[in-house]
Design goal:
CATH topology: Jelly Rolls
CATH architecture: Sandwich
CATH superfamily: Jelly Rolls
Shape: globular
Helix content: under 10%
Number of strands: 7
Structural class: mainly beta
Order of helices and strands: EHEEEEEE
Strand content: over 45%
Radius of gyration: 14 Å
Distance between the termini: 14 Å
CATH class: Mainly Beta
Length: 123
Amino acid sequence: MPQPDYAIHYEPIFAALQTMDVQALIDQVDDPWYNQTLIRIGDVLVRLGVMQGEFHWHKHDEQDEFFFVLDGLFRIELEGTDTVELGPRQAFAVPAGMPHRPVVPVRSAVLMIEKAGVNATGD
């Protein structure tokens, strides 16, 4: 099944000792589903998602995925269980291997923390 057109950027745009104006980056986004690595800290990536719409069902076999909502409304459908609904300043972790699908009814900004080398669209 073809995947929707996601704007996914894996290269970090900031380094240590740099101030990150995350709001300015959010304000510049025109893509309906934008995913940008902000910085790499050791073996961990801090990523920004600015999105609205539905992502496809996917999973990450070897790693957990952490979501922290900055603003908006972010739902995570989980296979075999209830949908989790997150508002501003709420967070949730999806364990490795669990199929899930973000569904975002209004434009939202989310920070994600993942291991370096992640395939954002799933394994």
